[in-house]
């Protein structure tokens, strides 16, 4: 191929096409899962805290606790979904825990667990619901960030919270306690 033909050909090389296509695909994949990619990257370690026991949990019966601190932004919910979930622990990997503050404007989600859809919501402020089987991904509504998920571990029958995935509403940084 002559130099002139190379400069005027209408298509890019296969290598350039693949590089450009790969970049676009990565962006689409990250943008196509609202909040999920960010949540996966933002795992923060907090002090280990026992929050319950596997044998005491009943399917679709949430238990509430405070984590990682004891302030108004630390409300969380532990629930056995009865179906395998992302980040779940236990024999069926169906035990998960999440913040109960909506990521949109901090609406209170406590008491809005939906057993039929394994979701929490709708938020009483602007109606966002979060899918608890998919790392708290937004299922519908105004929020754009996934609900922060409590990182769980088990030792025998005991369930421990050991960290959070996602930024808690009201915090400017996941590792910083609230300033008063
Ligand atoms: S505060 Fe929850 S949807 Fe707006």
Question: How would you characterize the overall build of this protein?
Answer:
By secondary structure, the chain is α+β, with helices and mostly antiparallel strands. The chain has one domain (36-165): 3-layer Sandwich (Rieske Iron-sulfur Protein). The protein contains three helices and ten strands. The chain has helices spanning 3-8, 14-31, 36-41, and strands at 43-53, 63-66, 75-80, 95-99, 113-114, 119-120, 129-131, 137-140, 149-155, 158-165. The strands form three sheets. A four-stranded antiparallel β-sheet has the order 5-6-7-8, with no helix packed on it. Strands 1-10-9 form a three-stranded antiparallel β-sheet. Strand 6 (119-120) and strand 7 (129-131) form a beta hairpin. It is globular, with a radius of gyration of 21 Å. It starts with a helix and ends in a 15-residue tail after the last strand. The model is unreliable at 14-40 (pLDDT under 50). The structure holds FE2/S2 (inorganic) cluster (FES). The site of FE2/S2 (inorganic) cluster (FES) has 13 residues, from loops. FE2/S2 (inorganic) cluster binds at residues 102, 104-107, 123, 125-128, 141-143.
The total strand number stands at 10
The CATH architecture classification is 3-layer Sandwich
Please, how many helices? 3
CATH superfamily: Rieske [2Fe-2S] iron-sulphur domain
Form type: globular
Name of the CATH class: Mainly Beta
For the termini, the CA-CA separation is 71 Å
**How many strands, what sense, and barrel or not for the largest sheet?**
4 strands, antiparallel
Indicate the mean pLDDT: 83
The hetero compounds bound to this protein are:
FE2/S2 (inorganic) cluster
**How many structural domains in the coordinates?**
1
Q: Helix-strand pattern, N to C?
A: HHHEEEEEEEEEE
């Amino acid at each position: 191929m002559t130099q002139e033909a190379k400069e005027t050909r209408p298509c890019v090389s296969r290598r350039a096409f693949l590089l450009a296509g790969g970049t676009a695909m990565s962006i689409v994949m990250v943008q196509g899962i609202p909040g999920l990619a960010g949540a996966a990257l933002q795992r923060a370690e907090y002090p280990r805290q026992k929050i319950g026991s596997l044998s005491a949990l009943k399917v679709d019966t949430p238990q509430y606790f405070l984590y990682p601190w004891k302030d108004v932004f630390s409300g969380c919910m532990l629930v056995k979904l009865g179906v395998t979930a992302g980040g779940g622990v236990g024999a069926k990997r169906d035990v998960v825990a999440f913040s109960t503050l909506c990521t949109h404007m901090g609406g209170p989600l406590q008491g809005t667990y939906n057993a039929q859809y394994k979701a929490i919501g709708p938020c009483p402020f602007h109606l966002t619901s979060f899918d608890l089987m998919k790392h708290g991904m937004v299922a519908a509504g105004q929020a754009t960030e996934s609900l922060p998920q409590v990182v769980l571990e088990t030792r025998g029958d005991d369930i421990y919270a050991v960290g959070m995935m996602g930024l808690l509403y009201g915090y400017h940084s996941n590792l910083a306690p609230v300033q008063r």
